[in-house]
Amino acid sequence: MLSKEVDLKENERIDDLEINGFRIIQNPFCFCFGMDAVLLANFARVPAKAAVLDIGTGTGVIPLLLAAKSKGASWTGLEVQSNMVDMARRSTLFNGVQDKVSIVEGDVREIRNLFEAGSFNAVTSNPPYMKENSGLKNPSDTIYISRHEIMATLEDVISAASYVLKSSGIFSMVHRPSRLPEIMEMMVKYHLEPKRLQLVQPTAGKEANLVLIEGVKGGGRECRILPTLNVYNEDGSYTEELLRYYGKA
Q1: What integer pLDDT is reported at residue 243 of this predicted model?
Q2: Closest C-alpha among 7, 143, 28 to residue 86
Q3: Among 39, 74, 75, which residue's Cα sits nearest to residue 57?
Q4: Partners of 101 in the β-ladder
Q5: For residue 8, with 0-12 CB atoms within 10 Å meaning exposed, 13-18 middle and 19 or more buried, which class applies?
Q6: Which helix (H) or strand (E) holds 11?
Q7: Which residues touch 86 (CB under 8 Å, ≥6 apart)?
Q8: What is the predicted pLDDT for the residue at 113?
Q9: 181, 135 Cβ separation under 8 angstroms
């Protein structure tokens, strides 16, 4: 149940998550969630009564979306940036889910000081896509950190996920297809056997620009390649499948 009041700070706004009436506090001068977070929340498998950790949670969008749609028991978001942690925590209060969704401020590289080994059934992550020296630096440090591997590398995220997952626990991540060889290599290295993979492309016939991937800790070697997801129809409108993800179809 939504709280009647919310404390908004300078430049902050409230965005509708379009599911269960949930809303989220964001600041356009910081990193705001995009379609990739929505895609990951729909792709991720969350077992009933699962304890779920979202690594690099930002303003907490993935825990909120999963809390609204899955049958998990608890959701934890881990975020290193204090301003994002503050917004995420106020969003949990605003949506009245603070008893189920908790936000932890901490560095994924210090994961062993934050959580016990094998303490989660599922882990999700929408990590920075670009290596530290790639791309142009954003004017906002918050945005730059969210998009570049300044505070956490791909290996940091995957090794942390493996550490906190129980045996047979599920890791789900969204990333760039260009880094898929590295992603697969790291997942196998840390015993997260790739099990499901789905490419996302803007329209039919276009090169994929996102990849959704799932690994199972200690799983056997077998990977399913799901049908490619098209975001837009030829006329520029969203496809029916994507509209379903947003609860509009």
Answers
A1: 87
A2: 7
A3: 75
A4: 75
A5: middle
A6: none
A7: none
A8: 97
A9: no
User: pLDDT, tens digit, for every residue of 161-210?
Assistant: 999 999 999 999 999 999 999 999 999 999 999 999 999 999 999 999 99
CA 198/CA 78 separation, integer angstroms: 25
Rg (CA), the chain: 17
Judge whether 165 and 120 are in contact, CB under 8 Å. Answer: yes
**Residue of 9, 15, 20 lying closest to 32 (CA atoms):** 15
Contact between 148 and 43 (Cβ < 8 Å): no
pTM (global) more than 0.70: yes
CA distance 185 to 192: 10
* Both tokens assigned to 153: 């590398």
The answer to whether the beta carbons of residues 52 and 5 sit under 8 Å apart is no
pLDDT for residue 51 is more than 50: yes
pLDDT at residue 129, rounded to an integer: 66
Tokens of 224: 């399913």
Q: What is the DSSP-derived secondary structure letter of residue 108?
A: G
φ and ψ at residue 179, rounded to 5 degrees:
-105, 15
DSSP structure class, residue 50: -
Task: pLDDT band for 139, please (50, 70, 90 cuts).
Answer: very low
CA angle (75, 244, 87) in 5-degree steps: 35
CA distance 51 to 46: 9
